Amino acid sequence: MAYRQYRFNPQTFTYEVIAAPFKIRFYRVLRKILIGFILASIVNLLFSYFFYTPKMYRIARDNRELVFQYNLLQDKIAAGTRKLSEIKHRDNNVYRSLFAADTLNVPGLYDPYPDSHYARLDGDPYARLMTDAWRGIDGMARLLYLESLSLDDMQLLARDKEAMALAIPAIWPLDRNKLRGNIGRFGMRLHPILKRYIGHEGIDLGSTTGVPVYATGNGIVTTDRAVAGYGKQVLLDHGFGYKTRYAHLSKVLVAPGQQVKRGEIIGEVGSTGRSTGPHLHYEVIYRGRHVDPMNYFRRDMSEEEFTRIIESAKATTYEAD
Ligand SMILES: [Zn+2]
Q1: Quick check: 205 pLDDT over 60?
Q2: What does DSSP assign to residue 34?
Q3: Are 248 and 233 within 8 A, CB to CB?
Q4: Distance between Cα 197 and ligand 1 center (Å)
Q5: pLDDT tens digit sequence for 105-137
């Protein structure tokens, strides 16, 4: 589109080309380059819209490879999780039971993270693949954490095995010949007054006022937040995660801070607090959780005797709370 300007020269009677100023020439060149560039871009855009460039081929291939690797990873995570679950099972059923330790339970450990935890991966075309992998890895990390805690326990227990054998609540808290009436069992039971099911955190051993109450394992007399209705009570800390409580006593014969040995008399049966008759309310607390005290009498009795006692335990209560 170059155009030329002419000027008439009266001396030579000819038309002469006027050379355009440099600035104008420069702009013309620039314009040509620009137009060329825009055209090339449009062609490139159209081309890349219909055809893959070699670079895109490479990226697509890498993506397929990545998806493949992610799927392999998922399989590996699943296999690892299975293996860890087996270890956990063995730990609970062999090693922990060797030391009479309850199943280790960390509250909330198995609650999966909420979806929002993985929200940063949303919007990615491969989000599900990545989220699943992360979930799997998080699940494995929890199991590993639990097992490492358990191993710490085992290490401690193995070291202090003797002290532990003496500390764990293992005998009846009162002479079994002095039992009277039913044994009120641990767990859910129908409340006699409220007429609804509530949890019973210990067992009730019916007896007579004045019957000696024994410490069921070596420990230290301790206290906790007073629970209304327990009346006169003793709480023992045995270490190793164990505590025992003896409630509704008529007499307390020990003081907080005092060391007691298994079988030592710590009080006498009574009916103080919210109680409907003389009985001992006995609790075993392991790692802050109430467990069935009956399970700790097993080593103190023959199997038949133990079964008979368990079956005789009723959903009765000596407590009005
Ligand atoms: Zn009770």
Answers
A1: yes
A2: H
A3: yes
A4: 14
A5: 777 766 777 878 787 777 777 888 888 888 889
The whole-angstrom separation of Cα 206 and Cα 281 is: 9
C-alpha of residue 251 to centroid of ligand 1, in Å = 17
| Confidence at 58, pLDDT banded by 50, 70, 90 | very high
Q: What are phi and psi of 24, to 5 degrees?
A: -65, -40
Which DSSP category does 217 fall into? S
Q: Which pLDDT belongs to residue 120?
A: 76
Question: How many angstroms separate the alpha carbon of residue 16 from the centre of ligand 1?
Answer: 123
DSSP assignment of 77-135: HHHHHHHHHHHHHHIIIIIHHHTTPPPP--TTTTSPPPGGGGGGGTTSTTHHHHHHHHH
Domain 176-312: CATH superfamily, name plus number? Glucose Permease (Domain IIA) (2.70.70.10)
Give 321 Cα–ligand 1 centroid separation in angstroms: 9
What are the pLDDT digits (tens) for 268-310?
999 999 888 999 999 999 988 999 998 888 666 777 887 887 7
Average pLDDT, the chain: 85
In order of 16, 17, 225, the CA distances from 7 in angstroms are: 5, 6, 112
C-alpha 260 – ligand 1 centre gap (Å): 23
Ligand 1 mean position, distance from CA 183 (Å) = 10
Instruction: Decide if pLDDT at 40 tops 90.
Output: yes
Could you tell me the distance, in angstroms and rounded to a whole number, from the CA of residue 233 to the centre of ligand 1? 12
- Ligand 1 centroid distance, CA of 293 (Å): 11
Between the CA of 320 and the centroid of ligand 1 the distance, in Å, is 9
CA 199 to centroid of ligand 1, rounded, Å: 10
The domain ranges of the chain are: 5-50, 74-159, 176-312
User: What is the whole-number distance in angstroms between the Cα of residue 317 and the centre of ligand 1?
Assistant: 7
Q: Are 288 and 201 in contact (CB under 8 A)?
A: no
